[in-house]
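Thread: "does anyone have the structure for this chain?"

Original post by V.I.:
We have the sequence but no experimental structure in hand. Need at least a predicted one for the grant figures.
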Amino acid sequence: PVCLKDSVHAEVNETSKGSTFEWWYTPDSSSTPFHIGEKYDDLQSQSYYYYMRWSETKQGLTCSEYDSVFVKIKDLPEIKMLKPADICENGDDFPLTFNATPYGGEWFDTVSNIDFIRQSRFYPGLAGADGLNTKNHALFYTYQDPITLCRDTSATFITVKPLPEVELNEERVPMCNTEDPRSLNQYVENN
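Reply from O.Q.:
Generated one for you, tokens below.
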């Protein structure tokens, strides 16, 4: 299949040295061709007819032959994504399966040394925060349409929040083993 954004390669086989090839997007060969040569590559953005004139001169006589081909572009699958909620770096891993449609695609990350997405599950502990700052991580989803075989990829982000840093303002809190339980909140400083 030829999918949107694919490159099309057109090539004329079995040519001779005296041949010339001119390419148009319209059947009007009186206009200037967009390409001259036996090979042509085009990045597809819509369906096209490609028209080609093959000319060859032998012993002073020029003969031409015309041909065309229609290249139908198949649409890419339309991916819709939901941004996952922010999560703390010590949060549980969770499935990303229902955060994108159509279902059945694959989730992945592009960080080479850490796989924080495994089997379509996000692992916040592996992704991590940035020290005491939040960190955004790109989550990629790719889907291939089973009928057209066209594939597309889309991305969303998740924010991983760091754990709060907690310090006691006393090195030791004196307590007797016979004492009733008491709150330690008075000894905590939250940065």
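V.I.: this helps a lot. The mean pLDDT is 86.
O.Q.: and The longest helix spans residues 124-127.
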